[in-house]
Amino acid sequence: MQQAVVLPGTQKIRVSGGGIRRLLADLEYLSENERDQVRQAYEFGARAHHDQRRLSGEPYISHPVAVATILAQLRLDSETIIAALLHDVIEDTPTLRVNLEDHFGRQVAAIVDGVTKLTRLRKAGHSATQAASFRKMMLAMVDDIRVILVKLADRLHNMRTLEALDRERQRRIARETLEIYAPIANRLGIRTIRREMEDLGFRYAWPQRYRVINRHLNQRPRHPRAIMRRVSDRLRRALKSANLEGSISARAKSAYSIYTKMREKRLAFKEISDVFGLRIIVSDIDACYRCLGIAHQLFRPMPGRFKDYIAIPRVNGYQSLHTVLLGPEGVPLEFQIRTPEMHRVAESGIGAHWQYKAEDKSVLPAQFRTQEWLRRITEMQATAQEEEFYDHVKVDLFPDKVYVFTPKGMILRLPRGATCLDFAYAVHTDVGHRCVAARVDGQVTPLRSQLKNGQNVHILTSRHAHPNAGWLEYVATAKARSAILDYLKNTQTREAREVGAVLLNQALADRGSSLRKMGRGPLEEALTELGVTSRQELYEQIGLGERLATLAAAVVMNPGKKQSGDRRRKLTPVDIAGAEGMVVTYGKCCYPIPGDEVVGHASSGRGFVIHRNTCGNFRAERKRKDRWIPINWKRRIRLEFPAGLRIHIDHRPGVLAEVAARVAETGHNIAQVNMQDRPEESTELFLSVLVKDRDRLARVIRAIRTLPSVHRVQRV
Ligand code: MN
């Protein structure tokens, strides 16, 4: 049927109007006002898609109308229907989310936006090898379960019109439907959609097997319909004489479920029983059990085949009594007995919570309705299958996980709050240790930023990068945390061993020997006496300042002799390069820099702290000679060290900027500034400047002195 639709501001466009009229007829359960909005959504969609066609040649709008019709048959609310009519406009036309908000409100716009995100996820072309993870990612991405309902209906209509595509795409889309969409429909309990998806999916994914099973179904020796009619007649009479009202319908198991059963249980077609069955709907739960009793009196039940899903519902909320009876001529028949309410839930599952109810004018937030559904199922589950329930349904719908893609399209599951750094460590510990930044959906992003569902994450690494203790503040996974801690601990140990070996070597040199001259033998012998099990352990203890190199050297030189400390011996200085990291640190009291005369203080467990020999701390403690080690700076140190300066300066606005500019002119950076705010003419300014050595510091000091407002500059 063709109908001319006049759209405001455009010329006449011919679209097939039969679809919308049928849809509006299916929507008689909505109010007149809501149906009017649906009509407007249709016109909006038709205008947006007016220049597009389906592969079948039909105008594009026929597709959204068909999607809305599928949802209308589930009696879903008007927002869902409107969103279905508009579900492709953001992706396929210039329409923006705000346009939809203006015309149809926030809820509808949010649903369409959600559907668009799922569509883009698919278009990114990721392999469906991890179907289970992909399903979870999809569910995790939506706040409103109606997004999934529209997406399922969209996919179902695409399956119905698969004929227009080539063989290869048919197969790919069909398999994806079986692996991803039908299981989601199942999890949410929407049987009508799941069953049709499975049937179409099976037909296109495995055409040969589909034909074989259907041939078997039709070639049964005696046509089972006749048998089923006889059975239902007998049952109907028995129910009547027991004063039970009920409706009975015949049903055949689907080709796909027969196929799955054959494959899972490795059975031949002949070995599959209960291919046919009856569904009986009676008024209440009490009647269900009475009906079961009557059926068991009429026909012999097969042992072990009775299941009470009323007392213990399935994880998606499905309830029914199931039993398999031997019908006439030994044909097994499966009986399903349930109430009308159970039937409604069995057919539309979570959709039942979005069904239109005239009296329900309360606007429940989307999340809340889904939670209501879960709460009801949880109550039903209260006992037996609770654990399984949480494993499957709840975790899927309210996940505490995020799902993201690796560059190869694999899906990684991380706890909510995980950052790019967690991702890097989840890929591989080495990737974590060497990462410098991440590229998230193409944008360079800091390592500390938190991940969102569906993002593509690529980690940028550098050979020179390594973990630091600050990383511990923004990792959420145990794996990343322990890898970083391990690294830091190992680094400290390695550095301690290196420094320890140097110190021991210097101490031996003071006694006219060295590690090399000693050789392994004598050193190994001394280990027991020193109470350590390996040379590495000895170096580590020395490096961490837990043991003194001079005493250890004495034992190594003269094992077995009682040692007397020779305090007067002049010690050879140890060379440091400034890059020893965690084992060698610099006094915060005197800020030593290369060129200063320095000494090292062994502080147990923390390695060595370098002080200037003018430092007050050294003077106060110099008596404890065994704790101090002479230190030399190595030549050519590349690092910069902070040096403290105290500057007496005029107290007037702008002086700080003048000083800062002078320092910058010399090519140095200021690490810290502190100014004493005293109401006097002159004040004190503390600067910490990063320099390589004494010469350069002297240059900085000279530059500052030339400022007229500066009276005096001193090193702290
Ligand atoms: Mn679509």
Quick summary of this structure?
The chain is an alpha+beta fold and 716 residues long.
Task: Tell me about this structure.
With 716 residues, the chain is an alpha+beta fold. It folds into five domains: 5-205, Orthogonal Bundle (Hypothetical protein af1432), CATH 1.10.3210; 216-356, 2-Layer Sandwich (Beta Polymerase, domain 2), CATH 3.30.460.10; 367-470, Ubiquitin-like (UB roll), CATH 3.10.20; 486-633, no CATH class; 641-715, ACT domain (Alpha-Beta Plaits, 2-Layer Sandwich). The protein is built from 27 helices and 22 strands. Strands 3, 4, 5, 6, 7 and 8 form a six-stranded mixed beta sheet that branches. Strands 14-18-16-17-15 form a five-stranded mixed beta sheet, covered by helices on one side. A four-stranded antiparallel beta sheet has the order 20-21-19-22, covered by helices on one side. Strand 1 (2-5) and strand 2 (13-16) form a beta hairpin. Helix 10 (191-205) packs across helix 11. The longest helix is centred in the C-terminal third of the chain and has 33 residues, at 478-510.
